[in-house]
Amino acid sequence: MRLVAKPEFGHGSNLFRRILAILLVAVLIEFTAGALLYERISDLSLKEEEAHRLAEHLVIARKFLEDRPAVDRKAMALELTTERYEILWAPHPVTFPGFTQGLARMHRQMIGWEPSLGEAHIRMQVIAYGAQSRIAGGLTLQDGSWMGFATQAGRSGWDVTGMRIGLAAIPVIALIIIAALMVRAMLQPLGQLVHAAETIETGGEDVPLPQGGTAEVRLLTQAFEDMRRRIRQMIAERTQALASVGHDLRTPLARIRLRLDALEDSPARERIEADVAEMELMINSLLAHLNGANDPEPPTLVDLAVMTDTLVAQYEDMGKDIDYSGPDHLSVSLRPGGMRRAITNLIENGLHYGGAVHVRLKREGERISLAVEDDGPGIADEDMAEALRPFGRLDSARGRNTGGMGLGLAIVQRAIALEGGSLRLSNRPEGGLSAELIFPARPAPGASARPA
Amino acid sequence: MTAPTIIVVEDDPPLRVLTTRALQENGYEVKAASSAPEMWSAFESGPVDLVLLDVMLPGTNGLDLCRQIRRQSDVPIIFISARGEEADKIIGLEVGADDYLAKPFGTRELVARVRAVLRRGGSDRSDGQERSSEAHFNGWTLSFPRRELRTPDGAIVDLTGAEFDLLACFITNPQRVIARYRLIEMSRTRLGDSSDRSIDVLVSRLRRKLTTGDESAPIRTVRGIGYIFSSEVDYR
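^ inputs. structure came back:
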């Protein structure tokens, strides 16, 4: 089984970041260009409006001042001063240097709005107060006296620009966040597809495929679904074919055995018998390998101690050097067929590569340990993984797995994985290999757990 | 005493011939059939003591065929199958077969199984007993079709073929002394299991399996004669 880091189609992914980056650049360009243009236009219209308003105010102020006798004019000017404009009056003109650059247009706009101002000889200039600026100027009344004016500080349209840009940026930021969430949601199904693709080879339950998504993602999902179905069908067909070959081979093998039994005893007959026995073993282990993948048996309560002891006793009766140590009884819920085969394979391996085999069973709390130890040459550390691989073969002294197809330990591994446990291979310090099955001691479903 | 008659139902011609010959050489009368219809006509032609039935016949499901035979007759049936897997074995035994022979088998194994089943079948019938599928003693359950023993709390206790036959012999003769020589004779018919341990080893192994906690096994030694199964047996 491979362990693959699951790719996350979230913030860290390349595709996600790229789409977001493209979006970000596009939005920023749009925003900058838009803001500049908008700023220019609003700036212009703002200034024109400002000019008109100033012109109106000046016309009215001029009229009021001209209607008053000279003595009242100073007080009148004070009354005409508003929050927006400051008005002054002086009996003699105050000279202004002229128009500050940029105010000529404003002057034109003022005259255009209030033509009566044309004869008033308006002079204006920009006076800067720190960051803010105000416009100050003067004009002559009909009697030759002078009226001064100035826009009040902080009343011009200039300083709100920063805030307006800030306000305009809020929807942009919101847009980017929404876009990020949408892109993420759009890429989500791809992550699910990757996960589904990874689980195909392990042969487990079908991982649900993503629902919905964009048309392209739906097409991809559909194509993936079809591919997954084809792969499963292909595997099933191959398994079926291989299994029926295995089953069918047993009939000619039975014929050979019956024919052999009719022959006189001879060394050749014995050798043929051994060959037939080996072929039988190969077929058995191949079918067990295929079967384990196809129809797992249901777990049931089993006396594991008796099971192990019975298997050991059968080898003992064949004259093998084997012993069992452990409890007389140990009830556990497991799949008896798979477990019997696993223990048998470990024992056969041990007997094949080592002379003597010790089988030890013990319960440690909630775990069960079943170790098959031999006194053979063991397995080099670098060959451990190869020993567990289906159809894997080792070149050294363990050049042949029992069962003849290199399936022995792979079958053990799958059987024990079904019980939620694992197979541990280790070389014993005193020599030989220890193959240990470690799995949880599950009481039968519905049955009360007994202390062992 | 006439030789027992066996019907061999096998679709593979050479294997059918070889099986027939092997049985004939061991003193059995054999009728060979290659299909279900041939088997039925073999039944018509005279009494049959045992059927050797290949599960995978073309056009027929061997399991259905077995059920059909069971509806009409108690004749012992041995399944022959190329599928030696545990589940197949259990299904075969549950539809009423008496034993299960996995391919590829040799002559010795074939003859041993036939002999054992004939012996069992004969004794069952002579007692006039109904075929009972389960026996209970001290809370333990022995299932004949599944050849399976379970503890009072339901755990499966593995038995070798010889151990099962020994226990079955005790259970069919409860609270009766069984002579040692009878048990030895019985265990000799089982050649399929390569065990030729003495009957005493077999009994002691069976005792160990039937002993739990403070409850000792209900098999007692009767010095100089044999053994007795001391517990009451109840068929259900």
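Chain A touches chain B through 43 residues (CB under 8 Å). Confidence is low (pLDDT under 50) at residues 1-11, 154-159, 395-403, 446-452 of chain A.
thumbs up if we can close this ticket
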